[in-house]
Structures are given as structure tokens and as C-alpha cells.
Write a structure and sequence with these properties.
DNA polymerase, domain 1, three-stranded antiparallel β-sheet
């Protein structure tokens, strides 16, 4: 699954970044950049595209990924006016990608730019990327932890630190994504009943509000939380960690647990999903538990969990 999320911070409302003065020009309200017109070169279009993405509160890593690919696009085709970019330019740019995943990412970035120029900024009447389609990239088969490995990693996390213990527990027993873990604040967990705390998964960005949910936990979380707060005294956000630091924490604990397979935050989330499927969760329930949008790719993901949770193919009939 590809729903891992970086920290997102609520941004204050901004004034308009430009004034629409007609179909052919966006007049900047800040200095140093020319107006966007059909004859603007790619660097100018890329600048205004970035401002549009930022104003729409797209995640920072998404914006940076688009801009990285578009900088490569400019290197390939040169600073051409946007109304002179052709499908041949797009083909040359995509042809230099070494892998299918790189080609798919590049096509997504350049397509988003030209869709915005056509539909959002209304600078162009046609999209030179319209005839290109991404290569299908199969979903990777998850490798969830076995029962013995689950117990081993929880024990190793407890021996590592109170922070490692609660991080591993939340990922493994509630199926949080790495981004959701890092977005947790102290007031997102309701301990009114210490034996049945409730974890609320919130998203600052309105684009992702459909992923919000609340998840029940047990007294074990209360004990882990109390120990963690005593050791680390978080003020607001629970885990002041970078995404890469979470990965390293999980890898370190997995090694200490003697687990030879590669283990990541996504591995723990996959394990949670398979365990819930074994408990009887169906496709709809797995989508809800994991905060996944109801689309074809996510349904393919949860069907893999259901398949992994099913009895062995050669098991005797029940």
C-alpha cells in the first residue's frame, strides 16, 4: 500500500497568489517572477504550479517529488514555451527513465503540470501528455510477521525503550501508518476508561479527512503510554521523530528480536491487517480499519490480506 504519510501542518490561509487578468495571463502579486502566459517558458510554469500546489496544501514531499521530476523534464526539453511542448517531448522525457516505476512517477508529475495548465490556470487548450498511460506496477505481496515474530518484536521493543515499545505496539496492534503515528498528539488518545482507551486518527489536511477514524485499544496501551510519558515527557506531538528515524527504530528492534526478514512500519501494518482478516474482518471492514479509500487498488490490497489470512490451500475441509 502506498498510503504512508509525512507530517502535515495546518497552514494559515493565504491571500491569492495571483490575479487572473484574462485567459492569457496570471499577474503575480509577488515580485521576481514573470506573469504566466501560454508563451511562458517551463521554469515560469513550474514556479506557478508549485505555488498552486502549496496553496492547495498538498503534502510537502509530494510537491518536492513533482518539482524534482519537472526539473529533469526541463533539462531534457530545454526552457521551451509551454504552448510549444509536444507529445514527442513527453515521449523523449519518459524514454530516458530506467525503470517502469520511474517512468510512472515522471508521467504523473508532468501530467499534473499540464492538467493544471489546461484546467486550472487555463493557459493551454490541449494536454501533450493525454495520449500516455502509466505502466501497470504490480502490488508487492506483503510479508506479515508470524505469531512468534510478533511476540519477539514486542519483547525486543520493550527491552529497547519505552518509546520503541509504544511505537511498535501502535503499528502492530492498531495498524497505524507511519505518517499517522507521527501525527499523533497527546489529546488524540482518550484515557477516560484506562481499560479501554480510544485512539483518534486525525488529519490536518482536508484532502485526507476521509481517512480519519477512531480505534479501540486495551489496558496494555495505557501502561505503555504512562511509561513513555514518564521517560520522554512529550508536550504536544507524541513522537518528535523523522520518518526515517521510525524506519531505523523498527529495523533495530527487529534485529534484536532475531527476525531475519526485512521489517518496516508497513510490515507491522500489513501484519495487523492480516490478523484482523483472520479474526473475520471482510473487505469493507479492512478498508475502514486501515483508513483506505474505496478504490480498485486499495481493494486489491485488502484482498491480498484476506488471501494470506485464509486457511492453507491443502487444509482438510472443515
Amino acid at each position: 500500500m502506498t498510503d504512508e504519510r509525512e507530517d502535515e501542518v495546518e497552514r494559515p490561509s493565504q491571500p491569492p497568489l495571483f490575479e487572473v487578468t484574462g485567459r492569457s495571463a496570471y499577474a503575480p502579486q509577488i515580485g521576481g517572477v514573470g506573469a504566466l502566459t501560454p508563451g511562458s517558458p517551463l521554469p515560469v510554469a513550474r514556479y506557478w504550479f508549485r505555488r498552486s500546489l502549496e496553496q492547495a496544501q498538498h503534502p510537502k514531499n509530494t510537491v518536492e517529488s513533482y518539482l524534482y521530476d519537472l526539473a529533469i523534464f526541463e533539462q531534457v526539453v530545454g526552457p521551451k514555451p509551454i504552448d510549444q511542448v509536444t507529445s514527442r517531448d513527453i515521449a523523449r522525457y519518459l524514454g530516458e527513465a530506467n525503470t517502469r516505476s520511474t517512468r510512472k512517477r515522471r508521467l504523473t508529475s508532468v501530467s499534473q503540470l499540464f492538467k493544471w495548465l489546461v484546467l486550472g490556470a487555463k493557459m493551454l487548450e490541449s494536454d501533450p501528455t493525454a495520449s500516455f498511460y502509466p505502466d501497470h506496477i504490480p502490488l508487492k505481496t506483503p510479508r506479515p510477521l508470524f505469531q512468534t515474530e510478533q511476540r519477539a518484536i514486542l519483547d525486543a521493543a520493550a527491552a529497547d525503550s519505552s518509546r520503541a515499545a509504544i511505537v511498535v505496539w501502535l503499528l502492530l496492534n492498531l495498524g497505524l501508518s507511519r505518517g499517522e503515528l507521527l501525527a499523533l498528539r497527546r489529546d488524540h488518545i482518550d484515557f477516560s476508561d484506562p481499560d479501554a482507551p480510544i485512539v483518534y486518527v486525525f488529519y490536518d489536511n482536508p484532502r485526507w479527512r476521509g481517512k480519519e477514524r477512531k480505534l479501540s485499544a486495551g489496558p496494555e496501551l495505557t501502561a505503555l503510554y504512562d511509561a513513555f510519558v514518564a521517560d520522554y515527557a512529550p508536550v504536544d506531538r507524541l513522537f518528535e521523530l523523522l520518518p526515517q528515524s521510525v524506519n531505523k527504530l523498527i529495523e533495530r528492534v527487529a534485529r534484536a528480536a532475531g527476525i531475519s526478514k526485512q521489517v518496516s512500519p508497513q510490515t507491522l501494518r500489513d501484519t495487523y491487517a492480516v490478523e484482523r482478516a483472520r479474526d473475520g474482518a471482510d473487505e469493507e471492514q479492512l478498508l475502514a480499519l486501515l483508513g483506505l479509500a474505496d478504490d480498485s487498488r486499495n481493494r486489491m490490497s485488502v484482498r491480498r490480506y484476506l488471501k494470506l489470512a485464509a486457511p492453507p490451500a491443502n487444509a482438510p475441509p472443515s
